[in-house]
Specification:
The protein is of the alpha/beta class and about 400 residues long. It has helices spanning about 10-20, 45-55, 60-65, 105-115, 160-165, 240-245, 255-260, 305-320, 325-355, 355-370, 380; strands at about 5, 25-30, 40-45, 70-75, 80-85, 100-105, 120-125, 130-135, 140, 145-150, 150-155, 175-185, 200-205, 205-215, 220-225, 235-240, 270-275, 280-285, 285-290. About 30% of the residues lie in helices and about 25% in strands.
Amino acid sequence: MPRALIAGAGIGGLSCGIALARAGWQVQIFEQAANLSEIGAGVQLGPNATRILDHWKLLPALRQSAFKPAALCARDWRSGQVLNRSPLNADPAADGGSPYLQLHRADLQAVLRSALESLAGAQLLLDHPVDGVDPDTASLSCGGRIFRGDLVVGADGIRSTLRHLLFSDSATRYTGQSAWRLMLPANRLPAGLIPPETSLWMGPGRHLVHYYVRGGQLVNVVGVVEQPDWTPANWVEAADFAELQADFRGAHPDIQALIAAAESLPCYRWALHDRAPMPQWYRARALLLGDACHPTLPFLAQGAAMAIEDAAVLAGELARSADIEAALQRYQERRQPRTRWVQQASRRNARIFHLRGVAAGLRNWTMRHGLAGPGRLTRRLYEHDVLHPGARD
């Protein structure tokens, strides 16, 4: 039985482990953290991702903690005017019956971990930071110990150790934007303040997104602000509530009420980093997956979905041939155009969301008249079917 060694137990690494174990591989996942945990954050999964999770028989478990939004609604951040509303989950047959789900990231990670550990031949090793790799022998070193396999996968995120070891590439680019992340108990908010949909509020140099997770018990809030310089040494910092208020001063009263509910809760601000698309994702029998090779900004809500798609494609290509390097080449050829487009569309959304003055007025007019809007990307995003290459791939 072939063996895969996977660095990283985030969404990409766990998904990769599940996909390969289901395809008959032995899997070892090496995670540097002693415990799997997530600072409160939400994740959105479109039908392109839930179609795969359904194939892995995980939807029943995910539905227990997920929320199904009715629509994606774009609004002007000051007036609150609805500029565009795109239905979600309205016609299950339209996307093959795959739902659009919103989850707490920790809930998604827990379901993936449970699924992995239920599969024969799959092992999760915590407190195992990887410090070396040999792509020719498909081996990893960890704390002086050598682990050997038939394939090495680097699924260890945007600051990937495997990426650096394989390609001597460690530089990331600060995008000039930081993100406030809040997780609010729904019962702390005024009744009717948060509709059962994903809400996007667009303003000059900033935008704010909120939606329910954990079945409607919590509201995930992400507020992105243009910030030319990032001085803290870390990518995330605990920040003062007054700074959050100042960044959204002048916004619609609904936003002010939402922010006011966070006054006594921890506030975190994240520096948003990016990388240019990579020309090569693998060396010999070692490859990269997810944010390790194509980190995606959050403005299209597709980062987790891209990693899940990667995992399904990789397992499918390895199942087609015993030639591992040929399978990795096909994986790269299939995934690079798709992920490059998603990276570029996410960057473009950041510019669109933050327009000012006349440009913002033109954006609002075109969205109100159905000539533009987030919903115009959904067909290309959600109908993409990596499980059936050639059908909608």
